[in-house]
């Protein structure tokens, strides 16, 4: 239906009503009622898909990972074996785009939006979704950090729902990333820049993304002789040993996670992700790692989560390198770490070593203060929830490792959201009215915060502080998405 008035001049153009959305100009609007309407899902184009097939795939995905190609082949085989009519055989790309689009919209509506406005062009949807990722992640953190009050306590013994959380790193799901590792971001939570590395996928036949092609030319240095190479490795090793002991002299546990600069600079894949999981196995926060599992990146994730959860985060936590984390926080709040309510909450959080990794800790201070067996706080508490999550997540490593920089974070967010829904026995069609309750955090996603700063610096042609100098001064490729990133930045607010 065009709803155009033939008697008056139509300034805004026709409003077109489709089974699952309303289109006005180049914007498609979805609501909870429209997206769930009918037995078929139609998101544009020439074909629709049975709703049952999409929901079946999502339900299977939470328990068993399936690639898009295998699922498309399976559905085509099912249609052939049961003699069901098909307008056209399932295409892997068409099916994956439909499921990905539908589930992001459904998740957005579940997380508090009453209307989701997306671009009409399907090619622009991935970029729009990536620009909306910080907002979706903030609502995800708020909902699942407060799931005890918003949904109800989990059915675990001793009424221990959300009594503790475990934070840990997972390095099985490693996607391809640009080799430019010296991308800095000046976070307000630290007095010094945070080195996060480039998050974009390299272009074809290159180790660098379109923004850092000049770096590839600079790294092609002439080969040195073997003696000189050995001397350089020895010198770098000594420098690394000195640098490694800057903040870790208080405990002699050899459990640090940071990698050497020489290894990081040669690595063409990400370092997995950090995840925060409650003792009732609810995922409350996560972030990708593009360099290594450093204490500052862990602290940034913790501070962001504390700030967004509105102080709903448990006051007891477990981390396999908790001794170094605790001493680092205690020494540097008010110095390297900015003194804020969130950082002070982190400072007052009681950390322990989780039971699975306790045997690796031999330091005297660690044994006196971090033992999970010397306190009643962890009685009947599951301290291995993060390891249990990663045991489930590692089966998805081939899928996650093959995704690009636009889809990878959204795929993880959707996967974790539906995993939590299943854990808490909540249907995905439920609507949580939390849109106006979620606090704002500019650094909830470091790649997005750094990308915003880079875009601003590139437009203004001023980079006086020197941060993100590589990205800001690199000649912009016409095929880059920077211009279009701002185009969809204000949609669906």
From TrEMBL:
Residues 457-493 are annotated as: Disordered. Residues 457-473, 480-493 have a biased composition (Polar residues). It comes from the Eukaryota. This is Uncharacterized protein. It comes from Rotaria socialis. The lineage of its organism: Eukaryota, Metazoa, Spiralia, Gnathifera, Rotifera.
């Amino acid at each position: 239906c065009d709803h155009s008035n033939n008697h008056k001049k139509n300034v805004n153009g026709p409003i077109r009503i489709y089974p699952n959305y309303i289109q006005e100009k180049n914007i498609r609007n979805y609501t909870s009622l429209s997206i769930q309407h009918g037995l078929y899902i139609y998101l544009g184009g020439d074909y629709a898909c049975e709703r049952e097939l999409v929901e079946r795939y999502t339900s299977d995905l939470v328990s068993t990972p399936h690639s898009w190609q295998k699922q498309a082949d399976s559905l085509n085989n099912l249609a052939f074996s049961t003699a069901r009519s098909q307008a056209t055989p399932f295409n892997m790309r068409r099916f994956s785009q439909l499921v990905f689009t539908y589930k992001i919209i459904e998740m957005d509506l579940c997380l508090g939006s009453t209307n989701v406005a997306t671009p009409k062009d399907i090619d622009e949807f991935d970029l729009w979704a990536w620009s909306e990722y910080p907002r979706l992640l903030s609502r995800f953190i708020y909902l699942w950090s407060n799931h005890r009050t918003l949904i109800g306590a989990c059915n675990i013994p001793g009424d221990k729902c959300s009594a503790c959380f475990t934070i840990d790193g997972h390095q099985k799901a490693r996607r391809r990333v640009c080799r430019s590792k010296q991308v800095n971001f000046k976070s307000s939570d630290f007095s010094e820049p945070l080195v996060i590395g480039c998050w974009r996928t390299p272009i074809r036949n290159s180790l660098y993304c379109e923004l850092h092609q000049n770096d590839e030319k600079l790294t092609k240095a002439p080969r040195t002789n073997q003696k000189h190479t050995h001397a350089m490795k020895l010198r770098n090793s000594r420098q690394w040993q000195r640098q490694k002991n800057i903040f870790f002299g208080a405990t002699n546990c050899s459990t640090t996670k940071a990698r050497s600069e020489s290894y990081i600079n040669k690595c063409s894949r990400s370092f997995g992700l950090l995840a925060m999981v409650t003792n009732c196995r609810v995922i409350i926060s996560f972030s990708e790692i593009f360099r290594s599992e450093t204490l500052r990146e862990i602290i940034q994730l913790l501070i962001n989560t504390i700030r967004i959860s509105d102080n709903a985060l448990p006051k007891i936590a477990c981390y396999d390198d908790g001794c170094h984390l605790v001493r680092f926080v205690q020494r540097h709040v008010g110095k390297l770490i900015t003194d804020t309510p969130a950082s002070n909450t982190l400072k007052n959080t009681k950390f322990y070593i989780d039971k699975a990794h306790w045997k690796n800790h031999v330091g005297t201070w660690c044994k006196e203060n971090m033992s999970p067996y010397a306190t009643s706080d962890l009685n009947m508490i599951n301290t291995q929830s993060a390891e249990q999550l990663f045991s489930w997540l590692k089966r998805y490593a081939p899928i996650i490792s093959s995704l690009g920089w636009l889809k990878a974070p959204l795929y993880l967010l959707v996967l974790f959201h539906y995993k939590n829904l299943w854990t808490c026995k909540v249907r995905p069609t439920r609507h949580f009215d939390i849109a106006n309750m979620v606090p704002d955090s500019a650094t909830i996603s470091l790649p997005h915060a750094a990308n915003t700063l880079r875009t601003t610096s590139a437009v203004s042609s001023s980079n006086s502080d020197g941060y993100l100098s590589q990205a800001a001064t690199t000649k912009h490729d016409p095929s880059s998405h920077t211009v279009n990133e701002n185009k969809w930045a204000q949609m669906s607010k």
